[in-house]
Here is the input.
Amino acid sequence: MSRHAIENGSLIPETEARVPVTLREVQSNFSVYEALRVVRRHIVHLDDHLARLEYSASQIGLVLPHCPWQEWIDRLIEADGLVDATMRILVYGGPTPMVFITWQELLSYPDDYYRKGVAVTTYHGERFLPTCKTSNLLLSYLALEDAHRRNAFEALLVDRNGKVLEGTRSNFYMLDGRKLLTAPDELVLGGVTRISVLRAARELGYEVVKEAPSLDDLSKGMTMFISSTSMAAMPVSNVDGRTAECDIEAVLSFTRLVRQWECD
Amino acid sequence: MSRHAIENGSLIPETEARVPVTLREVQSNFSVYEALRVVRRHIVHLDDHLARLEYSASQIGLVLPHCPWQEWIDRLIEADGLVDATMRILVYGGPTPMVFITWQELLSYPDDYYRKGVAVTTYHGERFLPTCKTSNLLLSYLALEDAHRRNAFEALLVDRNGKVLEGTRSNFYMLDGRKLLTAPDELVLGGVTRISVLRAARELGYEVVKEAPSLDDLSKGMTMFISSTSMAAMPVSNVDGRTAECDIEAVLSFTRLVRQWECD
Here is the structure.
């Protein structure tokens, strides 16, 4: 069966989910997006994702059309008989906004990633409008390509002050005793899963400290992990080719809570 | 007659010049482009534009497919009976690169702009990979929208050090006596017209100093202008709502030489 997509409320074949390269908004990627999980036909944290979509749009002056999101996503779930999937909402602004909803197989990772941790690399660069999920993604693309070339799973972005702010598609955390360190809100994407991670931290008895670790801190033997909608909490066991100590069980406690709350 | 475009060497209706929103390279705008002038069926400075396209691509690791550019552009000129036009080459990289050539009416500006100068605004922000012409254009889009809201023609981008580097689609210059000041090459786009402007400066007896003016310098009564493929040299007569002195004749001498060399 061929896949479908939603364009401005209409069900279309996925192959027709295309944008004209002659349009200024396409050429300049004047656009915001969200990636969501659908688990057993349930759209996880839809309200949080829509709130962030609204926020991202407002920050760049993109006027979001009024859309019955739940209804549109449900129509796509129905049409393609989806049970589990990763959905993408993409909105181009301008005089004639274009709204797309597309899907792919549910992004998930081998158990081993959670049991042994993943390798990350570091990459110097600062996201433009870091709190917004815009399509201005070239830096993230290049950083992730660099990570893949070095056989790593994710790249951590390091700012001009040597602070490790976030990954290209994840937030970043370090456990320092009973403290959980992570970058200040205004410097990173307000990850939907980050909300759950910070809630889990409090539940697990960590004090949340919004201070970004520095590059030097990465080799001090503290447990590190990253989070995203598709990853939940993912332990980091290698940084730039050097083995990093990691309390795998501690990170797993975060993932368990994050996943549990998805079903609420 | 409906317009055409070139996609990977094939002539297609312009309305079909579209890219799939499901493709990672589209989502991340892993893409480079060029805008060229066609004047009386002659493609202006084609070699310079192709050299910059190659350079931009190489800087982001985008492998350009081998394309017979002149032949493809000529095919489009022929198909749509073009005499004067602005052409856009757009290349998305990745496993299956996509090359588009599209056109619009030749961008040109009223004589008054050259006789009286244009208004510009300033905008704080730094382009990612400033020497490359990539599609990562959200900053430029936002800055130009801001300029338009303030009834200005162009926005000048100001870096973290308060230096005025370039416009969103132009290079920037200041005349200080017999010196022409402009940002160092490594901080700005290597404009094809900038090459001509610097050549003209030497011809007109200016010493070229590659130092970016600071924000404070903009109100010191020195002649300012911007340049681009479509503008040639355009005098600036207003900055952020304040009238700026401008030796219009001095700037016109640049435009005359720039336009003259286009026909060589």
User: Anything to note?
Assistant: Chain B has two domains: 4-105, 111-263. The mean pLDDT of chain B is 97. The first strand of chain B starts at residue 4 and ends at 7. Chain B touches chain A at residues 5, 14-15, 17-22, 24, 26-30, 33, 60-61, 88, 90, 100, 102, 104, 125, 128-129, 134-142, 145 (CB under 8 Å).
